[in-house]
Design goal:
Elements (H helix, E strand, L loop, with lengths): L7 H10 E11 L13 E12 L5 E5 L4 E7 L2 E3 L1 H4 L4 E5 L4 E11 L6 E6 L6 E6 L21 E6 L5 E4 L3 E5 L2 E4 L12 E4 L2 E9 L2 E9 L9 H19 L8 E6 L6 E2 L4 E5 L10 H17 L7 E2 L6 H18 L5 H17 L14 H6 L4 H17 L1 H15 L3 E2 L1 H12 L3 H8 L7 E8 L5 E9 L6 E10 L5 E11 L3 E3 L11 E6 L6 E2 L3 H10 L6 H16 L5 H11 L6 H18 L5 H18 L5 H13 L3 H12 L11 H13 L5 H10 L3 H13 L3 H12 L6 H11 L5 H4 L2 H15 L2 H10 L8 H13 L5 H30 L1
Helix pairs in contact: 3-4, 3-5, 4-5, 5-8, 6-8, 6-13, 8-9, 9-10, 13-15, 14-15, 15-16, 15-17, 16-17, 17-19, 18-19, 19-21, 20-21, 21-23, 22-23, 23-26, 25-26, 26-28, 27-28
Length: 852
């Protein structure tokens, strides 16, 4: 990987030296079919780049990662590939004022989801291709200048097997036998060009608004066609276009709008203009909850927002990645709430997305929203909770600070002023200052250019009459920021409901801010700082409020307020201020009354994490029993056929730990046991079989039999995970070898194997791999693609070996590998921090247990 890196300084120098007039890319993909599956496959890639010298100097380089280069020609002069190509770069010497570079190469199909990914459908043997480039993998498919600020128009020509369909960013202009030619694109960056090819199933529609007409397409593999609900995808797409056209006042600039759901995708989706790609798990094979449809709709709108924030106007370098990802993350929830049926999307944002941000912002690798990205490896790791979710939360605070219309008008001016160009932080701040009249530089310094999360705690004093004498908000956790927020006061009704009776919106700017408007208010049962979730901060409770939540959390009828309280309680647990067993008790007491299905699913995930990572080891068995009993109780009492019943069924399976639990799961699989209204479809069957495999109740033959029922790509992933989860030393050795010592598995199967390998109930089985992990990771990072390297380093860290000796081993590796790749060290430091946090929480929980 070091030879494939590109530094910010190198990119800056190249951008000062040249500009690109256009690309012509010809790909011959006929080699994707036929031949032996065991042999490496390549395809021919011929690229013509027209570029001009705009600075001083005569030497530069083009980017290409390919097994071989057949020919390189610069301005008609043949260059020796053996001399100029080093496997990642093509050296170009003697460039003129105007240049034509032609590169004829053999590029490799990918099995890692990077570059041109090739997938063979196990169901029917059909081959499917798609490209994925962010941040810098277009160079795996064609020669280019791989950096976001060297935009250019592209013309693609693709030769593909007869019977295949092919799509790219531009519309198909002509077809001559197996050769398809596509319209030239507007100027775009390399990383958002795209090709999708294969016998995909496709549905079409059209979006119309006034005189604007946008052809729509939605694609998936043929074997998924029976599950493909294209009508709902088009509904969300049209609602999104209506919203963005109304609020951005800039017509969608890229012609057609195709959306392809593709196999073995590493991301949620990618905003390639005119040809958006999504992970095909968003094509639901069984019954799912409303929350799953909300997630998919959010992703559709997130990617659509990128057509303006990212594709039309693009950051100059990855330092300002937030200029596209923070905005798209914010706009996803914003448009979802205002333009679709998912009107409670801000509840999901407060409970789920911000949890990701809070975790990332407390890691040793935390960074400002606008980051210091030295090279491409840094860039790859910065697609994180800060760039996405914290950035989006900060933008929500910006809307409260500057005003909604000022924010939207600033966006409109930003698009008009910088269309098809590249920008930096100052370009956005300047238009927002124009529209809001506020000092955006000071706001930026506080919110975009500093890291860390503040902690806001209410301090309440009462007078002799029992009313509030003074209510202040105390701000801790680094340098105080200016927070525009709301504080809500809640009382208990005779029916036991927590009802808000007072709300004040104010600026909290220092270490302690008194809210004078609340003086004299009646004594509240609950004080909720950051009511309505206007700002980004961790929230604490005063003692009376915490006592109220312990007894009456289920009485909070407002779903957003309830979600905020759950989030605050989870942060207390992670910070070792609330024992894990107390959080589990709160979930068992009140999760059954949770109406928002997305919040309920998050509570289930948090409860499992509390038990696995934060509970004292001596309480885990009892805690597991309590969770399984509670889950089964709620499962049996849930409305038959409801999404709550389905959610509790999945959670029960994940929490199963007793003989009676396993017998029920086995009965549900065989049909000898029934729960009224619960439809055990294929996806739910795998959810039930997986814990049986992990606890030794389902052997290889049982897993093979289930695969025979579901011999699909999804079934194969489930099978691989289940096989790796079996409680056997030989199984763990095989899984380790498949992932660490071999590159035969695709990215999706690497992910599945890692997920199966690490089971909380098998701590002793995986303990011997802790030293092996530290011996292997630097070699894995050097030899494998960055995506696989990230999966291995994150996924196989011995977090289940949660004892001080693992921290010591981690520290020893870090001390002995100070010169290791910074991105690798970052991953290890993050894992170490998670483990140290877990040990602190376990100590808190153990102390609570000892005191009772």
């Amino acid at each position: 990987m070091p030879g494939e890196n590109l530094s910010r300084d190198e990119a800056r120098e190249r951008a000062e030296l040249l500009s690109v007039d256009g690309y012509e890319v010809a790909l011959d993909l006929r080699s994707a079919v036929g031949g032996s599956e065991s042999e490496p496959r390549t395809f021919r890639s011929v690229t013509t780049i027209r570029f001009r010298r705009t600075g001083r100097g005569t030497a530069t380089f083009a980017d290409l990662i390919a097994p071989s280069v057949t020919a390189v020609t610069l301005n008609g002069r043949a260059l020796d590939p053996a001399v100029v190509f080093d496997g990642a770069r093509i050296a170009l010497d003697g460039i003129a004022d105007e240049n034509v570079l032609v590169v004829d190469a053999q590029c490799a199909y990918s099995r890692t989801g990077e570059g041109m990914h090739r997938f063979v459908d196990p169901e029917d043997g059909e081959v499917y291709l798609y490209t994925q480039y962010e941040p810098a993998d277009a160079r795996r498919v064609f020669a280019n200048f791989e950096q976001p600020d060297l935009k250019a128009p592209y013309r693609f020509e693709v030769t593909a097997p007869e019977g295949w369909s092919v799509w790219s960013n531009g519309a198909e202009e002509s077809r001559d036998g197996e050769v398809r030619r596509f319209a030239e694109t507007a100027p775009i960056s390399t990383y958002i060009t795209c090709v999708v090819a294969g016998p995909y199933h496709r549905v079409t529609d059209t979006y119309r608004r006034g005189e604007l007409e946008i052809p729509l397409g939605a694609m998936c593999r043929k074997s998924l066609a029976r599950h493909f609900d294209a009508d709902d995808i088009f509904l969300i797409t049209k609602q999104g276009f209506d919203f963005f056209h109304e609020h951005f006042d800039y017509p969608y600039p890229f012609g057609k709008y195709d959306q392809a759901f593709v196999p073995e995708y590493n991301l949620g989706a990618m905003e390639n203009p005119g040809m958006v790609t999504f992970r095909e798990e968003y094509v639901y094979r069984g019954k799912v909850t409303r929350a799953a449809y909300e997630r998919r709709a959010n992703v559709i709108l997130h990617e659509m927002a990128h057509m303006w924030f990212g594709d039309l106007v693009t950051m100059r370098w990855w330092d300002d990645l937030w200029l596209k990802e923070s905005f798209a993350d914010f706009m996803g929830s914003f448009s979802l709430a205002e333009a679709t049926r998912f009107t409670n999307s801000w509840v999901t944002f407060a409970n789920s997305r911000k949890a990701w941000a809070y975790r990332a912002d407390q890691l040793p690798s935390t960074h400002p929203v606008t980051a210091d990205i030295r090279d491409l490896e840094d860039a790859k790791l910065n697609f994180d909770g800060i760039t996405y979710a914290k950035g989006a939360a900060v933008l929500k605070q910006l809307v409260a600070y500057a005003g909604r219309e000022a924010f939207l008008e600033g966006s409109r001016r930003y698009f008009t002023r910088h269309a098809y160009g590249n920008t930096r932080l100052d370009d956005l701040l300047s238009v927002l200052e124009e529209t809001s009249g506020r000092d955006m530089r000071a706001w930026s310094r506080s919110w975009l250019e500093t890291s860390g999360v503040n902690v806001l705690t209410p301090e309440v004093a009462y007078g002799e009459d029992g009313r509030i004498a003074e209510l202040a908000v105390v701000q801790e956790g680094g340098r105080p920021r200016p927070h525009r927020l709301a504080v809500g006061l809640y009382r208990l009704s005779p029916e036991g409901e927590l009802v808000r009776y007072a709300r004040v919106e104010a600026d909290v700017t220092g270490a302690r801010t008194v809210l004078a408007d609340l003086a004299g208010a009646e004594r509240p049962a609950l004080v909720l700082v950051n009511d309505d979730d206007l700002t980004y901060a961790k929230v604490r409770f005063d003692p009376d409020s915490l006592a109220t939540l312990r007894a009456h959390l289920g009485g909070l009828s407002d779903p957003l307020a309830r979600a905020l309280c759950w989030s605050a309680l989870w942060n207390l647990t992670r910070d070792a201020l609330l024992p894990a067993r107390d959080f589990v008790a709160l979930v068992l007491a009140f999760a059954g009354r949770e109406s928002d299905i997305g919040v309920l699913q998050m509570l289930h995930a948090w409860a499992r994490s509390a038990l696995v990572h934060y509970a004292a080891p001596e309480w885990r068995e009892e805690g597991g029993r309590l969770l399984a009993e509670g889950a089964l109780r709620e499962l049996r009492s849930a409305e038959p056929g409801s999404e709550h019943q389905l959610t509790w069924a999945r959670f029960f399976a994940s929490a199963a730990s007793r003989e009676t639990d396993f017998q029920l799961l086995e009965g549900l699989l065989t049909g000898s046991a029934k729960i009224d209204g619960l439809d055990v479809d294929q996806e739910l069957r795998w959810s039930f079989l997986s814990p049986l495999a992990a606890h030794g109740r389902a052997d290889e033959a049982a897993i093979a039999a289930e695969l025979a029922r579901d011999d699909t790509a999804s079934g194969k992933r489930h099978q691989v995970r289940a096989l790796a989860s079996r409680p056997s030393a030989a199984v763990k050795a095989q899984a380790w070898a498949q992932v660490v010592e071999s590159d035969a598995l695709s990215n999706a199967l690497v992910e599945a194997t890692i997920a199966g390998f690490a089971q909380p109930s098998q701590r002793e089985l995986t303990a011997p791999y802790a030293p092996k992990y530290f011996e292997a990771i630097e070699r894995v990072w050097a030899e494998r693609s960055i995506q696989i390297g990230m999966d291995v380093v994150r996924g196989l860290f011995p977090s289940l070996r949660d004892e001080p000796s693992t921290l010591e081993a981690t520290d020893a590796w870090l001390a002995a590998h100070e010169s290791a790749a910074p991105a690798l060290r970052r991953l290890v430091l993050e894992a170490r921090d998670d483990l140290a946090r877990a040990l602190r929480a376990q100590a808190c929980d153990a102390a609570a247990g000892a005191a009772r």
